[in-house]
Target: Alpha-glucuronidase
Amino acid sequence: HAAWLPPEAFRALGARRILVHGHGLLVDTVLAEVSRACARYGGRVWHSPSWDVDVDLVLALRGAGELPNPAVEAARAVGEAALVEIGDGETLGDEGFLLARAGEVTVVVADAPAGLLYGLFHVVRLCAAAYDPARPPERHRPALHRRMLNHWDNVAVHPVMGQVERGYAGGSIFWCAGRPRGDLARIRDYGRLLAASGVNAISVNNVNVARTEALLLTDRLGDVAEIADVLRPYGIRVHLSVTFAAPVVLGGLATADPMDEAVRAWWATTTRNVYERIPDFGGYVVKADSEGQPGPFTYGRDHADGANVLAEALAPHGGVVHWRAFVYNHHQDWRDRSTDRARAAYDHFAPLDGRFHTNVVVQVKFGPVDFQTREPVSPVLAAMPATRLAMELQVTQEYTGQQRHVCHLGPWWSELLRFGPWGPGGRTIADVATGEAGGGLVAVANTGDDLFWTGHPLAQANLYTFGRLAWDPRLDPTAVLDEWIALTFPPSATADPELVGRTLHEIMDDSWRTYERYTAPLGVGFMVNPGDHYGPGIDGYEYTRWGTYHFADRDGVGVDRSRASGTGFAAQYPPYWAQVYESPESCPDELLLFFHHVPYEHVLHSGSTVIQHIYDTHFAGVEEVAVMRRRWQTLNGMIDAAVYERVAERLDEQVRSATEWRDQVNTYFFRKSGVPDERGRRIY
Ligand code: BDP
Model:
């Protein structure tokens, strides 16, 4: 299955003499990785206890006991010295590692086995540079504790959503037609890819929990345990999406009221059973009172009451509950302007700040509406200082081209993580998610049983980038893309690595902005076909119950979310942004229609009018996709033919679809506004 980490990516590692010092499940994984690489490239591996060997690389656990081996002793000494030199008194932690040079030897030191595994993958990324004598010591620790993927995989095939809800990469790697898929080798490969990107947690079933999926918590727990066993050697903990109604659905109780003693007892007992079977089980993921899922509102309770009952059950075992803030009324009346879906998460959750147990992580979609190509950062992330918050991203490209379009999301996620909700220069979203007080980063996965894992081979880069940014949100997304390119197309697998690298950057670096240019303009969002959400459906949701409107008429377009004349959503932000978003004069162009309803002739900061901006960006977007396709064609014969063909095929579809977007959006707004394109281009 073509992905990053082909054997060739290990060439620099595999040609060396390597000593692994330490014991444990994840150390065995390290040993297996280096042994495989050395067998291929002529290197040699020793596992402690071994002494009197000359080595190039030492991977050592510090607590693993003294050994009369000069290399390990040197490694230990260098490690200690380097830590002192880096000098903030911080240790390496459960997942951190140190990389340093001790004379002729490269040394990776960790305090825990997971750190050694991450250190190994760092050496693989560095390739020959890991052996550079001039390399200064580096200490690496993940900024975010939990770096989690949510799989929206159904166990039983859903009549509308199929095996994987919003999946664009074939079937599930975990489940097939109501049963475990049984391909444990594939799950193991997946764990390896994820570990190499930094992911350390995964939920294995859809947040919309139907009956078969609900049973994973009880009768079918063995199926989950089997997955956990396979992922454990890669440092990945398994979590489960559960239904809030489980005490009724599975336990036969009359109620799921979180204040009911029998309900509490049921969760406690059920959870204890889970930990008996899966001692390192991560915890629960819950979508409650959302899009038809059951929740505490049924019993007149709020979401803190609901989350806390599960948290109490998990606490004795060290588990967490990821409780989603995606709660809104999906039966709105489009004629009634008094409700605004963008407000909902804040209205429901901000008042509950401080009431959640410490092992509750409130999981907040990055934007206030729903994973659109462009949204402001959710104000909930700035409104709950006494709650552990995780931001939720969508790696699966539901609204960003469904893995038929190239849409590299790294630059966008980086922007979100660096956003300062209290104003520029202050604390960022990454800070909110970081450390003990933070809830980490979560994303909906984009993988399936497809040959390339992600349908579009280039969509793998989104998965890889997610893990890397969760490990360190300050990483430059362009540099992360470089890593992915080097790991996926190592020199031996391509005729001209420099050309391949440059071309991929040219195609991918700006592809999210390109996608934005030919789809919904200026942050207005949701101009997609209802149901499958692919392709233009400009009025598709305009008169529906879902609360996602653009309000285009003959005079203008956009949603007035100001405090003065609109829904008041802008006032949910801390003062700096509340003020910026409040008026069309200060609102950034790219979010103008998210926050304001403006006339077509409104002049943007860019100097263009809204209507002319719509025309220009849509023409430009399609041209950019045509250029992407031409660039890709220059790689014909340079890389694996199957990868080449798959991407070429998808680029044809992207050109077709982008053209359709352009023509529908431009025509729609031309007909609404009657304003001609000032450059006289053809609009239908
Ligand atoms: C929406 C998806 C829907 C998901 C929902 C969610 O269309 O399939 O169930 O998000 O996040 O965007 O729960």
In short: The chain has three domains: 7-140, 147-488, 515-559+597-673. The mean pLDDT is 95.
